[in-house]
Write a structure and sequence with these properties.
Serine Threonine Protein Phosphatase 5, Tetratricopeptide repeat, about 240 residues, mainly alpha, about 0% strand, single chain
C-alpha cells in the first residue's frame, strides 16, 4: 500500500472514531432527556455536563430534575447558567419561570415566562407557567386566558385543563371548572392533582359524598397529599 493509501486508512480510522464518539455523546444526551424520574435525570444529565458543561439541553433537564426533587436552588442555578450561555433559549426562561413559582415568587415567575414568550409566543410551557403564576397572584381571569392559549396549542394538555379548572373554580365558575377537570381526567385517568381539583369542585357544589370520594382517590395515588387531607378534614371524613 502506498503512502496515499495509508493516509486514507488513517483518515478513515479517525473518522470512525469521531463518529463513535458522537454516537456515544448523543446516546448520553438521550438518556438525560428521556429520564422518567428526577434522580435518573439528575444523574444522566450530570454525566453529559461533565463532558460538555455548556450543554444547554442537559442543563435544562437537570434543572427540571432538581426542581421535581425539591432542590429549587439547584434548579435555579442550572437554568440561570443556561440563560447566561444562551439568552435566546426560550425553554430555559420557561423552566426558570417554574423554578420561581416553586420558590414562591410569582412575580419573578411571570417575568421569566414573559421573557420566554417574547422569544417564542407559542411556547405552551411558558403560557402554562405564567397561568399558574397569575392564579397564585389571584388574577384568575389572566390565568384562564393563558391556560386557554396553552390548550389551543395542545388540546391534549391535561395539566392545562386541570389548571384552568382550578382558575375557573376560584373565579366562581363551577360548571366550567367541572367540565375542565372532567376533560383533564379523561386525558390523564387517575391523576392525583386532577382528582383533588375535582374534589374541590364537588365540595364547592355541595356534593359532599362525591368530594370525599375524589379526595380519597387522590390520596390513594399520592398518600399525604395536603390539599386532599385538608378537604377530608373540612368535610369531617376519614382518609
Amino acid at each position: 500500500m502506498g503512502t496515499r493509501g495509508r493516509g486514507w486508512v488513517t483518515a478513515g480510522v479517525l473518522l470512525a472514531g469521531m463518529a463513535a464518539a458522537q454516537a456515544a455523546d448523543e446516546a448520553a444526551l438521550q438518556a438525560c432527556v428521556r429520564a422518567r424520574d428526577a434522580e435518573t435525570s439528575i444523574s444522566a444529565c450530570s454525566a453529559v455536563l461533565k463532558e460538555d458543561p455548556r450543554n444547554v439541553v442537559a442543563l435544562n433537564h437537570r434543572g427540571n430534575g432538581y426542581r421535581v426533587a425539591g432542590n429549587v436552588e439547584a434548579a435555579l442555578a442550572d437554568h440561570t447558567q443556561l440563560i447566561a450561555i444562551d439568552p435566546r433559549y426560550a425553554v430555559g426562561h420557561s423552566s426558570r419561570c417554574l423554578d420561581q413559582l416553586a420558590k414562591g415568587d410569582p412575580a419573578a415567575a411571570i417575568k421569566d415566562c414573559n421573557a420566554a414568550l417574547e422569544i417564542n409566543p407559542k411556547l405552551g410551557g411558558a403560557l402554562f407557567g405564567r397561568g399558574l403564576a397569575f392564579a397564585r397572584q389571584g388574577n384568575f381571569e389572566a390565568a384562564i386566558r393563558d391556560h386557554s392559549a396553552a390548550i389551543a396549542l395542545n388540546g391534549r394538555n391535561a395539566a392545562a385543563y386541570n389548571a384552568r379548572a382550578w382558575a375557573y373554580l376560584k373565579a366562581g365558575q363551577k360548571a366550567e371548572a367541572l367540565a375542565d377537570v372532567t376533560k383533564a381526567l379523561e386525558l390523564a385517568p387517575g391523576d392525583a392533582a386532577a382528582l383533588d381539583t375535582r374534589g374541590h369542585v364537588h365540595e364547592a357544589m355541595g356534593k359532599k359524598a362525591e368530594a370525599i370520594a375524589d379526595y380519597r382517590s387522590a390520596l390513594a395515588k399520592v398518600p399525604n397529599l395536603p390539599e386532599s387531607l385538608e378537604g377530608l378534614k373540612r368535610l369531617k371524613a376519614k382518609p
